[in-house]
Amino acid sequence: MSVTIITTGGTIDKIYYDAKNDYHIGQPQAPKILERAGVTLDTPLIPLFRKDSLDITDEDRALIRSTVEQQPGHNIVITHGTDTMTKTGVFLQGIKGKTIVLMGAMYPAEFRDSDAVFNLGAAIMAAQTLPEGVYIAMNGRVFNPAKCVKNVAENRFEEA
User: Fold this and answer.
1) Average pLDDT for the chain
2) Long-range contacts from 139-143, C-beta under 8 angstroms, 24+ separation
3) Model confidence at 34, in pLDDT bands (50, 70, 90)?
4) In the record, which residues are listed under signal peptide (predicted)?
């Protein structure tokens, strides 16, 4: 079994950039996370683009969708910024023969106390065990993207 990981950017991949306390989206962090965790599962990586999710367009979502549809494997994890993750999840609904799990992080993966490691692990497990469909894995829960929201004040996802 394998889980294909498609990266699109977002906070998970942000890196500290300069003395102005500025952050930019860097290289995908998923491979580093999986290596540190000793994951031996086959996880082909497709770095699609590096954008803040607020900058993701419907054309970008169409590219994500076509990339998912072209994958030979059934299990897909998409790393994504949290601000528009639900919108992308809804856009991907209806793809047949795939279990698609979107995940992100509230803090960059390079931060010691980041939720990225936990969320990526949850997403990989969800992609292997859930039935065909589209899901969001955040904060120790799995959500239907059409029925959840990001609670900015509490810094978490919850049922809508």
Assistant:
1) 92
2) 139/115, 142/101
3) confident
4) none
- CATH 3.20.20.140 assigned to 4-159: no
Tokens matching residue 83: 């601000």
Ligand-binding annotation for 83, yes or no, is: yes
Q: Does the annotation list 82 as a binding residue?
A: yes
pTM score, whole prediction: 0.91
Domain boundaries, the chain: 4-159
Question: Smallest Cα–Cα separation from 76: which of 40, 14, 30, 109?
Answer: 30
Active site amino acids: 11
The CA distance from 9 to 12, in Å, is: 7
pLDDT band at 21 (very low <50, low <70, confident <90, very high): low
